[in-house]
Amino acid sequence: MRPAEEIKSVKPPLPARMYEPFPRIDVHEAPGSPFADVLRIAVSAADRWMLGPDGPYQHPGMSAADIVRGQLREALLHLCELGFIDIDSERMQAAKGWPMDRKSFRP
Questions:
Q1: CA distance linking residue 30 with residue 48, whole number of Å
Q2: pLDDT classification of 60: cutoffs 50, 70, 90
Q3: What is the pLDDT of residue 92?
Q4: Residue 74 gets which letter from DSSP?
C-alpha cells in the first residue's frame, strides 16, 4: 500500500431548481489514484458476487439487468461497509432531483 493521500474535493453548490445543470466534481482516474484503488476493490467484490451463491452461475435465469444490479449493489455495499465511500444523505435530500446518468444535466 502507498502512503495515505490527502484528498480534498469541494462540492459545488446544488442547482436551485430541477433540470438545471448539475455541477460535477472532478475525479482523477489515473492508475494508482484513490479512484483506481476503489475501483479495483469494487470490481473484485462484483466478480466474487458473480461466482457466489447469489450470482448468475447459481441462478442461470437472471436477466442482464438483475446481474448488473447485483454487481453494483455488492460493490457499493462492500465499499460502504469498509468506510471507503460515504453517502452524503444531507446533500441528496437537499437536491431538487438527481441526474440518473453521467451525461444528464451537465453544466
A1: 24
A2: very high
A3: 94
A4: H
